[in-house]
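Residues pack. One example:


***
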Amino acid sequence: MTPDISAHDPVKDIGKTLKRIRFERNLTLENVSEATGVSKAMLGQIERGASNPTISVLWKIAKGLQISLSTLLNEPVQQYRPVNILQDLKPVYDENQKMILYNLFPFNPVSGFEYFYIILEPGAVHHSDPHRKSVEEYIVVTEGALTLRVGEQEFLLTAPAKINFHSNVPHMYANYTQHPVIFQNIMKY
């Protein structure tokens, strides 16, 4: 039986998933804090469901624990069922509510990738810390003009446009226009 994707709220399950991973690895909150750069207090709030973590915090946790973002979001597997992204999936927002991320295809160890649909509202700027050396990002801009900085290089990608890069350097996604930017991001591990 196919799970009901529309009823799944990934944010609600993040704390349970984090706690499960922490216990499986015999880690304390302090160990996880040191590995991720996220405070013990924040990690405790996330585990208790008392905090709604931002995309930046989720990326730090995933990077520090060396897991995919999809693992942390505990996304259900979907097969052979069309899904309306904007109606059926629950998004995750950045701290300013200007970056909206939908996890379309959660990480699968067989395929080795995860696939995100991302909306940047006007004025959105999202800085991303370096990922592991073995991660490559594939970006396809389908609407608007995305400003992308990879290390010291900056690119303006006006739809339709694409680029791929190794994300082992700091990188930044921005929308300096008055219209939303929509792009897909495939992370290949």
Residues 1-8 have pLDDT under 50 and may be disordered. The helical segments are 10-24, 29-36, 40-48, 55-65, 69-73, 85-88. The domain at 5-73 is CATH 1.10.260.40 (434 Repressor (Amino-terminal Domain)). The chain has two domains: 5-73, 87-188.
